[in-house]
Recover the amino acids of this structure.
């Protein structure tokens, strides 16, 4: 199974560069997300340790048994949900709390949204390379996609979404940094399988 | 109560009936009270109606005709009184019930409230009604963490109370508003309240009020929006299509409330469906013209109304013309457009056409019914233009409509304009024809080049040159065109060519005579903000124009000049050029410009900005004139002056310090004399200055030498005075010679000899030793304490000057040294005539005699010079014995004190070897010693000392030469005054 999946990786160099690029985007997103959180807390007078209960994104739990494709799929799926939540949060915020003069917060919010889209493109390419489905649609089932009704809870919900993006960005960095060694290892395994088959012939 | 005073009055007037009457009154009062209790109704059917948003509680009840009630509102849980008030409440005509409204400070959800009412009439009250309870949200059944009021909108400056209902089982922590912790009060077991006073503007997303439990882990909160009520303005309605209405207004104040909390508008009670926009300018369209409009702006904090009314014809704001086109010519163009609505075709319109060319905009206005075209005149050929149009109603003009879209076009070409030309002539009939490049507008098409023609009308010679586009000056040599004569002229013509043809020629007539005729005077031109302002006198009948030409004044050959043309009649002009540079002198010339040759009328010189000279004066020289110092210099070259030199400052510098000696305000100064300077070294600095200041200065040094001519003059004057003095003295002595003789040279009486002792006795065998001659030898080993000749320096002569000193420089001892015999008292030989007082006075007092002798000794020295051995050495001192011996003819004192002291010490260790030389020719005493004291040359001078020798007396006398004196005079024609005096005295001797 491993050999079959590894064969689908078209060249370790391309994968490594794609992974590296995705990791750089994730690092950038993580930095930009931290700025966004800071701006939002400043805007809403929230303290940094404000309570955030539970995760909004729903993905299978992490496991060491997961192979590269499953890890990429899990990451990509979580990031997709993040982007859906973020889109919705921005829309709700604009609809119910917006209208004022645009400032640094609004600019940074757009930056994070765009960067998250770039990261999704990169992880999507990696997932495709790893043999995953070409196109994933976010599973919004169970997501608190509409958010709360009162404005304060809406603000807390937006904050939770920003934290969720921040969390999954860090996860993306961790996952992507772990990928190159796996690819290299699996490339070696692919070479061995081919050698064995050649010897049998 | 009114009856009480009355009762007291009765009791005092009728005491017998008092008890009965009092009882009756008490019974009556009791009866009344009982009746009242029975009459005041207890409020029934108390009903509560709460408006949670407005925090208003409506209480209604039934209480018959009673109008005054006591109301009590308590917080149910803690039984704290919130309100206890007596109010007057009438029965509502509609419901037939008593109704009273109360607005709570706290949100009504905060905690349960108990309300009870009783009727009152005066002090009489009914029983309390049943207590009605308004349930709060802190009931045990509602366990959640809650906060009230929810998402409230309040005006700026309002006070708002918030309450927080803790989750069942959690302890209250704090309430924060923004970043501020607030002080809270407890309303019930789970409910806490706080009030925010004088609230400022919130953020656009609202300010947060957050309630924390004691762990600060559990929070809940609300957003509160603080803003302003609406304030619209500039409400006006107009029509653009002559049918519908467009109403416009703007928001004069940002309410800080947006989106769902933003301002809502109604126009004539119809909601305006406006899309949300931060743009304060609002516009709303209504399908028909109503003539009167009311705008109402509403938000959560209030509302504002505006009205407007007008006839349609007074509010026409046409839409922009459409589909613009143009018909273009070289000098004009026609712009055409279409009108959007048919109604405009019958409407009198005024339209504005804005023409833009090279960044400049001009507006042309046209009118007409249904106007749809306009002709634009006075356009430049071959020029790019852009045009846009807008229109308005000509009658009852309301405002300009919108601008149409812009169209562009380019006008056609024409032949170029005539170039602006000028001629610069050098002094040798060469020069250059110059012209200014045509501007794009002057070119009026695509330029191809220029043509320069020189034509001599008299000689019918013509020279034409085609010049490319990038050349604007052509050198000329008139001598190649025409013969140089004062009547001949050459016409220079320049034409420009473009694709359309050749321009009209521009020409200048050049006379074949010296063109650089300097005007009588050159004025100074002053540069101002507008450039060089020039003024000149003009003949009132003059019809010619002018040309003002300027160039760098330091340029003399083929100068790059600039010029402008001045219309006839003008007498002033300001010239400005981007090429003007500070520190450069410009020659500005005014020429007449007519069909005749240009004539120089006036000339100016000026600087755009004067600077300090870039170099100092040239060739600074210092010359000593006696004790004066003459400084001379040459002026700074024109290029380096960089300003009009106003004068010169003369400094004397010592080290780094400059001392101003003089300020020469005459710029033509070329020299300065520093007078009466003592000897020494001096350094002078000359700095020219302009209005901008001094230059760095030129420095020259001089060592002032002593003034030798004066010294010579002084010496000569001194000598002259001395000579004159001597002459006077001599003259006086001559005149008083008898007295002088008596005073200084009394006759020596003839010795009286008692008997012929000289013959009877043994012959006087005393011969002066040959060494009795004065032997003046300076010997350091000689003990000066002994008798000897003492050397005394003659200070007076030393002071006479160097001339004499130098003449004696080669001698071992100066001739001015005088020798005195200091041992006169020890002379062993006494005069042989002790009875002679005269002789004793003159001979015994040797000291005095010596003084007298000293005065004559000078002549002795001169006599010494008569040494026959050579006049060339006559000035040599006689200290040298060999010289003296060789001479033999010089004077030698006959008294030789050394004779006495010979045996005590060798005064003359080297006696003369030749005794004959010692006794040789010389002076003799005036007395007749020759007879009485015959000298034997051969022996007398070389033997025993001359004891009793008359030579000792002779030393007090003048020593006169004997018969050989004439010979001596011949040998020494330059005899001194002393010699002359001696001779004179000798001749007077009887």
């Amino acid at each position: 199974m491993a050999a079959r999946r590894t064969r689908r990786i078209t060249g370790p160099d391309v994968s490594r560069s794609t992974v590296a690029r995705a990791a750089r985007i994730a690092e950038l997103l993580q930095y930009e997300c931290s700025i966004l959180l800071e701006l939002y807390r400043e805007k809403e007078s929230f303290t940094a340790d404000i309570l955030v209960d539970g995760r909004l994104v729903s993905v299978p739990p992490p496991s060491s048994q997961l192979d590269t494709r499953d890890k990429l799929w899990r990451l990509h799926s979580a990031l997709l949900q993040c982007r859906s939540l973020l889109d919705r949060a921005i829309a709700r915020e604009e609809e119910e709390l917006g209208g004022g003069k645009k400032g640094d917060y609004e600019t940074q919010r757009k930056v994070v949204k765009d960067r998250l889209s770039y990261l999704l493109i990169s992880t999507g390419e990696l997932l495709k390379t790893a043999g995953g489905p070409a196109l994933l649609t976010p599973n919004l089932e169970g997501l608190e996609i509409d958010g709360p009704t009162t404005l304060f809870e809406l603000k807390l919900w937006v904050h939770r979404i920003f934290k969720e993006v921040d969390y999954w960005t860090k996860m993306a960095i961790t996952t992507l940094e772990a990928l190159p060694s796996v690819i290299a290892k699996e490339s070696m395994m692919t070479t061995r399988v081919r050698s064995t088959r050649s010897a049998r012939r | 109560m009114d009856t009480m005073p009355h009762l007291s009055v009765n009791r005092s007037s009728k005491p017998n009936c008092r008890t009965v009457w009092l009882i009756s009154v008490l019974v009556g009062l009791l009866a009344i009270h009982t009746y009242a209790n029975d009459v005041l109704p207890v409020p029934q059917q108390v009903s509560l109606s709460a408006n949670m948003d407005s925090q208003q509680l409506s209480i209604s009840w039934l209480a018959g005709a009673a109008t005054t009630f006591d109301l009590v509102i308590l917080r149910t849980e803690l039984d704290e009184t919130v309100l206890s008030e007596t109010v007057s409440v009438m029965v509502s005509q509609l419901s037939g019930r008593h109704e009273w409204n109360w607005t709570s400070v706290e949100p009504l959800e905060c905690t349960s409230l108990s309300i009870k009412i009783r009727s009152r009439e005066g002090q009489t009250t009914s029983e309390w009604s049943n207590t009605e309870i308004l349930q709060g949200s802190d009931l045990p059944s509602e366990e959640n963490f809650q906060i009230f009021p929810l998402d409230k909108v309040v005006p700026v400056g309002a006070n708002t109370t918030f309450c927080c209902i803790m989750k069942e089982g959690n302890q209250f922590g704090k309430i924060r508003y923004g970043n501020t912790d607030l002080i809270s009060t407890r309303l019930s077991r789970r409910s806490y309240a706080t009030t925010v006073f004088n609230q400022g503007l919130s953020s656009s997303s609202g300010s947060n009020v957050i309630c924390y439990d004691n762990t600060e882990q559990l929070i809940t909160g609300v957003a509160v929006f603080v803003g302003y009520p609406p304030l619209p303005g500039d409400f006006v309605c107009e029509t653009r299509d002559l049918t519908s209405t467009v109403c416009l207004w703007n928001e004069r104040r940002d309410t800080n409330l947006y989106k769902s909390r933003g301002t809502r508008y109604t126009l004539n009670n119809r909601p305006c469906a406006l899309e949300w926009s931060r743009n304060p300018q609002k516009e709303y369209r209504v399908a028909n013209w109503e003539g009167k409009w009311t705008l109402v702006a509403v938000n959560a904090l209030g509302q504002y109304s505006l009205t407007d009314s007008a006839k349609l014809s007074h509010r026409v704001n046409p839409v922009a013309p459409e589909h613009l086109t143009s018909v273009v010519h070289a000098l004009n163009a026609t712009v055409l457009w279409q009108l959007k609505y048919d109604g405009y075709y019958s409407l009198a319109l005024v339209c504005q056409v804005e023409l833009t060319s090279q960044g400049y905009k001009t507006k042309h206005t046209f009118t007409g019914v249904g106007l749809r075209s306009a002709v634009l005149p006075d356009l430049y050929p071959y020029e790019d233009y852009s045009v846009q149009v807008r229109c308005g109603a000509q009658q009852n003009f309301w405002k300009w409509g919108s601008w149409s879209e812009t169209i562009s076009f380019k006008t056609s070409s024409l032949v170029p304009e005539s170039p602006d030309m000028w001629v610069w002539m050098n002094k040798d009939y060469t020069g250059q024809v110059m012209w200014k490049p045509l501007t794009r507008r002057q070119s009026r098409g695509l330029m191809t080049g220029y043509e320069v023609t020189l034509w001599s009308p008299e000689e019918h010679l013509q020279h034409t040159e085609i010049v490319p586009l990038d050349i604007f000056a052509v050198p000329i040599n008139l001598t190649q065109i025409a013969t140089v004569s004062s009547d001949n002229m050459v016409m220079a013509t320049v034409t420009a060519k473009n694709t359309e043809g050749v321009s009209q020629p521009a020409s200048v007539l050049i006379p074949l005579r010296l063109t650089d005729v300097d005007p009588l005077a050159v004025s100074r031109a002053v540069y101002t903000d507008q450039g060089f302002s020039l003024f000149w006198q003009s003949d009132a009948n003059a019809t010619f124009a002018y040309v003002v030409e300027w160039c760098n004044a330091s340029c003399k050959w083929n100068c790059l000049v600039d010029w402008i043309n001045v219309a006839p009649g003008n007498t002033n002009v300001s010239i400005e050029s981007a090429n003007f540079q500070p520190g450069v002198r410009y020659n500005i010339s005014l020429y007449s410009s007519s069909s005749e040759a240009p004539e120089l009328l006036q000339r100016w010189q000026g600087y755009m900005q004067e600077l300090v000279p870039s170099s100092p004066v040239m060739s600074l020289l210092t010359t000593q004139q006696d004790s004066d110092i003459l400084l001379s210099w040459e002026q700074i070259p024109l290029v380096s002056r960089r300003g009009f030199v106003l004068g010169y400052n003369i400094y004397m510098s010592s080290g780094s310090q400059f001392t101003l000696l003089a300020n020469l305000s005459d710029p033509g100064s070329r020299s300065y004399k520093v007078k009466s300077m003592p000897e020494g070294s001096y350094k002078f600095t000359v700095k020219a200055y302009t209005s901008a200041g001094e230059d760095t200065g030129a420095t020259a040094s001089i060592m002032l030498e002593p003034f030798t001519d004066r010294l010579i003059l002084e010496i000569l004057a001194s000598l002259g005075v001395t000579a004159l003095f001597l002459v006077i003295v001599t003259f006086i002595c001559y005149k008083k010679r008898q007295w002088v003789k008596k005073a200084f040279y009394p006759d020596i009486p003839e010795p009286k000899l008692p008997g012929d002792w000289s013959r009877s006795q043994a012959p006087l065998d005393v011969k002066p030793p040959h060494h009795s001659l004065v032997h003046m030898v300076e010997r350091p080993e000689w003990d000066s304490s002994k008798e000897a000749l003492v050397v005394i320096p003659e200070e007076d002569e030393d002071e006479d000057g160097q001339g004499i000193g130098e003449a004696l420089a080669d001698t071992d001892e100066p001739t001015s040294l005088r020798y005195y015999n200091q041992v006169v008292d020890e002379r062993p030989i006494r005069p042989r005539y002790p009875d002679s007082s005269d002789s004793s006075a003159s001979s015994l007092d040797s000291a005095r005699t010596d003084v007298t002798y000293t005065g004559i000794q000078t002549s002795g020295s001169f006599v010494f010079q008569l040494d026959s051995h050579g006049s060339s050495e006559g000035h040599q001192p006689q200290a040298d014995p060999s010289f003296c011996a060789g001479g033999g003819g010089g004077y030698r004192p006959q008294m030789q004190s050394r004779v006495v002291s010979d045996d005590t010490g060798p005064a003359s260790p080297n006696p003369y070897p030749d005794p004959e030389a010692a006794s040789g020719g010389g002076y003799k005493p005036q007395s007749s010693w020759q007879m009485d004291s015959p000298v034997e040359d051969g022996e007398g001078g070389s033997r025993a000392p001359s004891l009793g020798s008359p030579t000792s007396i002779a030393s007090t006398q003048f020593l006169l030469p004997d018969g050989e004196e004439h010979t001596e005079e011949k040998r020494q024609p330059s005899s001194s005054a002393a010699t002359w005096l001696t001779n004179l005295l000798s001749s007077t001797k009887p």
User: Anything to note?
Assistant: The first strand of chain B starts at residue 44 and ends at 51. The interface with chain A takes residues 147, 150-151, 176, 178-179, 203-208, 210, 217-223, 256, 258-260, 262, 276, 278 of chain B (CB under 8 Å).
